[in-house]
Specification:
The protein is built from 12 helices and 14 strands. By secondary structure, the protein is α/β, with parallel strands linked by helices. The protein binds pyridoxal-5'-phosphate.
Length: 393
């Protein structure tokens, strides 16, 4: 048995900070010296740099990834009596924002390899559970009578959903698509960056994300000028010019300090993503050499995708026992997410049964995130894999 040989935290932000400390401090100092904290030059510059990074013409900084989703759906006119299609296996905010706009989330199951919206299930849902009202040009959910206003496709763990198929189905039903790219900054699907394929793309700068700020932050990107202007207004109480309100919006601005730090980090993001990909390839190799391929499932990179490995997710029916053993060996892991959204207490009124989305429920029961951050060493990965091999021996 391998004893405790080293600490392997799930994430080590201090290791990253050590490599950029001077740059971050200079950026923060710059904001303090300017005493401009709201919608100053750093936010404007980050929006330009982020738009360029994604290959989209417009980017709008907002207060969080959650707000990016909220403002995007609001700009698409989602409101009371409407419904929005999304997956039940995702972070809570994907569906929470739909409910906070007075609308109803309609769940469609995932494909089990990449954990994202399954286009085949989406097609079935649209054909069997919905009806297209030709005169009103609306897609109606038969059981609830709600008008479906949008699809939210999540790119979970840093890998894009099957966007070509999803966009084709959306177009057939005249539905806009919001990409929840909160975990997928810089990920590619057939050479297009996450967030730029649908109508609006949403990003989170939560500190543990691949591009993490020093607090909450988010960004919306779009190729649609009208929608971009709409969310730009929404983030600042719908005012333009100041004190002249075209609509009722929110206070959801990205802080200047966040933008200043994120600009420093954005310049390193490609290098960090490459390091994550190398770490993932090394894990794959170590698992194979340890003869664990039949015991655990490692995360596949699906055709046409460039993964950014926000998380490296393994799968095993013995997930909980394995996690306990790794914890005892000082290896940090996490379960994203232990309860599929359709089984959450707060969504009971939606009327779903626990068995409605078996792939989501199974993923919630079997997946485990291993440390994958860029500064993780080969020795740490090898130790983690040795401990996993011990568990299965
Ligand atoms: C898939 C997904 N959607 C939405 C969010 C919400 O982002 P934030 O925490 O910045 O509000 C997150 C991040 O936590 C996420 O992972």
């Amino acid at each position: 048995m391998t004893g405790v040989l080293m600490e392997v935290p799930l994430l080590d932000l201090k290791a990253q900070y050590a490599t950029i400390r001077e740059q971050v401090r200079a950026a923060v100092d710059d904001v303090f010296e300017s005493q401009r904290f709201i919608l100053g030059p750093h936010v404007a510059a980050l929006e330009e740099e982020f738009a360029r990074f994604c290959g989209a013409p417009f980017a709008i900084g907002v207060a969080s990834g959650t707000d990016a989703l909220l403002l995007s759906l609001k700009a698409l006119g989602v409101g009371p009596g409407d419904a929005v299609v999304t997956v039940p296996y995702t972070f809570f905010a994907t569906a929470g924002t739909i409910v906070n706009l007075g609308a109803r989330p309609l769940f469609v199951d995932i494909e089990p390899a990449g954990f994202n919206l399954d286009p085949e299930q989406l097609r079935k849902f649209m054909d069997q559970d919905c009806a297209f009202d030709m005169r009103a040009r609306k897609l109606i959910h038969r059981a609830s009578g709600a008008r479906i206003k949008a699809i939210v496709a999540v790119h979970l763990y840093g890998q894009c959903a099957a966007m070509d198929e999803i966009l084709a189905l959306a177009e057939r039903n005249q539905l806009p698509v919001v990409e929840d790219a909160c975990q997928a900054v810089g990920a590619k699907h057939h050479e297009r960056k996450a967030g730029t394929m649908g109508d609006l793309g949403c990003f989170s700068f939560f500190p543990s994300k691949n591009l993490g700020g020093v607090g909450d932050g988010g960004m919306i990107v779009s190729c649609n000028e009208q929608l971009a202007q709409h969310v730009r207004l929404l983030r600042n109480h719908g005012a333009h010019p100041k004190y002249y309100h075209k609509m009722v919006g929110f206070n959801s601005r990205l802080d200047e300090i966040q933008a200043a730090v994120l600009r420093v980090k954005l310049a390193h993001l490609e290098t960090w993503s490459q390091a994550r990909r190398c770490n993932a390839a090394d894990y794959d190799d170590l698992f194979q050499k340890a003869g664990l391929s039949g015991r655990i499932q490692t995360p596949p990179v699906l055709a046409g995708n460039q993964h950014i490995f926000h998380q490296y997710i393994i799968r095993t029916p013995k997930r909980d026992e394995l996690r306990a053993v790794l914890q005892a060996r000082s290896i940090g892991t996490e379960i994203y997410y232990p309860v599929s959204l359709h089984e959450q207490e707060c969504f009971r009124s939606l009327g779903y049964r626990a068995t409605d989305f078996p792939r989501s429920s199974e993923a919630a029961a079997q997946t485990l995130a291993l440390p994958i951050y860029p500064e993780l060493t080969h020795e740490q990965r090898a130790y983690a894999v040795r401990c996993i091999a011990d568990f299965f021996s």
